[in-house]
Structure formats: structure tokens, C-alpha cells
Specification:
With about 325 residues, this protein is an alpha+beta fold. It contains eight helices and 21 strands. Strands 6-7-13-11-12 form a five-stranded antiparallel sheet. A four-stranded mixed sheet has the order 1-2-5-3, with no helix packed on it. β18 and β19 form a beta hairpin. About 40% of the residues are buried.
Length: about 325
């Protein structure tokens, strides 16, 4: 599709294949991919861009399926101008493109505890939007503010008070491009923090398929489930457990499989299409509902148009 795009200092690429930019390695092209040089470049581009042109912010593709037909509009992906990490006192300011693991490690070196970020795949922008968390700590517990650029090019600032953080969700608008976040960290001993993170990595590698093509956890854990209907029996469940109970561990469609090591990891076993992956996810949701009455909610984001002859998934 042809668009009248404003000039930029960064990079604009037409018809950019997005499969190489996602951890699942699937998906079609974006009409345009914009990689801004800095926040001023991003804001000027969005302010001058025709409001009718769709815009889709994209992180490092760790929690994303791009559908086979690709994305109509402009995909914005932040790069080197947005991956800085600055530390002042107990506050850590990280660019939205900074990897969660890098922020955790650099903070630990300075004696600051953001270790919960170490095992979370992806970058800070996605972590804020998804209220990422691990080992009982979430972004909501440490975030001071997040900054970004709205669709009309204006600068915006969010705090936990207006982000309405909840399990794996926030109220960051889909068209806002987050550019950086500020965290308040507790102090700790650098060597102890590094040792703690090493133990976390070892545990993750033991229980999760970290070397396979996945996008992290596929579904959010069901919450507030009662097996008897009594309020005093309400408890949380793990998504992998209800998937196992539905007999869907190892289930396969085309090149997509629910991982044998951890059944809440939807996996590209080598030649999967985005349609294979999304179809298998929907088949799992259907089977879980039939066997338990629970409706699994996608944690993986899905964007774009279906390929030729396919019907859009739910």
C-alpha cells in the first residue's frame, strides 16, 4: 500500500519481512517499518503522519505472533537510540528498547535489585505494557513513571496511578510508543544479586524450553477458580496444568506444537506458519473450555492480517 510518509532521520523500510524480527520466526511483511533515530525523530514523524495511516509499536518480538498476511500500515521498532540505561541513586532509567535482562544485570552491578527482570524475555517497553513480573515482583511494584509518544506526536507520561496495572496487563494505549521507564529499586549486595539471578536462570532453563522457538508463556494463568463453587475454595491455577489436564501437551498442528517440556509454550518446531500457531492456540483454548469450563486468555500478542485463504482467528 502506498503512503505519503514524512521525512525522517532514522530508517524507513518498505515491505519489510517481519518474520526475522520475531522470536517465533513467522509472519508476513509490514507495509513500512520505521526505526526512529531518537525521540524527537519519532515525535516529528508521528505528528506529520496522516492520522488515517495505522501505526503499530513493536518491541523485540519476544511475545508476538505476526500473522501470515503481514501488517498494513507503519510498524515502529525502537533501536539503539532507545536502549540506554542510567542509574542515579536508587533510580534506574531504561530506554524502552533496553533488554530486561540487561537492565537487571546493570542494576545488580550497582547494588540495585531489579532481579525480577532477569528471566523475562523482551525489552522494557513491553515489560511495562504487559506489567511483566517474576518471583512475586511485577513492574507495577517498581515503576515510577513511563514516558512515550502518542499517535499525534505529543509526549506523554504515565504513572502507576493511571496505568491501572493488573495481571499481565496495563492501560498503555495500543498506539502509544513507550520510549523509556524509570524504576525505584531496593538496594542489595552486587555479588548476592548476581548469584540470585544465576540461580533463577538455572531454574528457568531446567523447566522451560529456552532454546526452542517460542514467544514465552502462551496463555495467562487462570485466576479465581473454584472447583466446588464455594468462595472459600477459590484458588489460582497454572495454565500448563489445565492444558495438561485437557490432554493437550504435545498437541500439534502443522509445524506448531505445545511444547513437551512445558505445555504453556506454543512452539515453532521448524516450519510452522503463523496460522498453524494461532490455530493450535485456539484448539487448546477450546479443549480446555470443554474439559474444565475455563477460558484461557492469550498472553502472546497477535497482530496483522491472515494469509490468503485463511480466516482471522479470535
Amino acid at each position: 500500500m502506498t503512503y505519503d510518509l514524512p521525512p525522517v532521520r532514522g530508517t524507513l523500510t518498505e515491505n519489510r519481512d517481519l518474520s526475522t524480527l520475531t522470536w517465533m520466526r513467522v509472519g508476513g511483511p509490514a507495509d513500512w517499518l520505521f526505526q526512529p533515530a531518537d525521540t524527537d525523530d519519532l515525535a516529528a514523524f508521528l505528528a506529520a503522519l496522516d492520522p488515517a495511516v495505522p501505526v503499530f509499536p513493536m518491541g523485540v518480538g519476544s511475545n508476538l505472533i505476526v500473522r501470515d498476511g503481514g501488517i498494513r500500515g507503519v510498524v515502529i521498532r525502537l533501536g539503539r537510540g532507545f536502549n540506554g540505561i542510567e542509574i542515579e541513586g536508587t533510580r534506574v532509567t531504561a530506554g524502552a528498547a533496553a533488554l530486561d535482562a540487561h537492565v537487571a544485570r546493570k542494576s545488580a552491578d550497582a547494588g540495585l535489585d531489579l532481579t525480577f527482570l532477569r528471566t523475562i524475555p523482551g525489552s522494557i517497553g513491553g515489560a511495562v505494557k504487559m506489567n511483566a513480573g517474576c518471583y512475586g515482583t511485577y513492574v507495577a511494584d517498581r515503576l515510577v513513571e513511563a514516558r512515550g509518544v502518542a499517535r499525534d506526536g505529543t509526549r506523554v507520561t504515565f504513572t502507576p496511578d493511571n496505568l491501572n496495572f493488573r495481571y499481565r496487563q496495563s492501560d498503555v494505549p495500543d498506539t502509544v510508543v513507550l520510549t523509556e521507564a524509570v524504576f525505584e529499586a531496593e538496594t542489595g549486595v552486587p555479588d548476592a544479586l548476581q548469584a540470585q539471578m544465576a540461580a533463577q536462570i538455572a531454574k528457568r532453563d531446567e523447566t522451560q524450553p529456552t532454546r526452542d522457538r517460542t514467544a514465552g508463556s502462551t496463555f495467562r494463568n487462570p485466576a479465581g477458580y473454584s472447583s466446588t463453587g464455594r468462595e472459600d475454595d477459590i484458588h489460582d491455577l497454572k495454565a500448563w496444568k489445565v492444558i495438561d489436564d485437557a490432554g493437550m501437551r504435545g498437541a500439534r498442528i502443522g509445524g506448531a506444537v505445545m511444547n513437551e517440556k512445558h505445555s504453556n509454550f506454543l512452539t515453532n518446531a521448524g516450519d510452522a506458519t503463523a496460522h498453524d500457531l494461532e490455530s493450535l492456540g485456539e484448539a487448546v483454548r477450546k479443549k480446555v473450555y470443554e474439559t474444565s469450563g475455563l477460558t484461557l486468555e492469550w498472553e502472546i500478542m497477535r497482530m496483522g492480517e491472515p494469509g490468503g485463504g485463511e480466516s482471522p482467528e479470535k
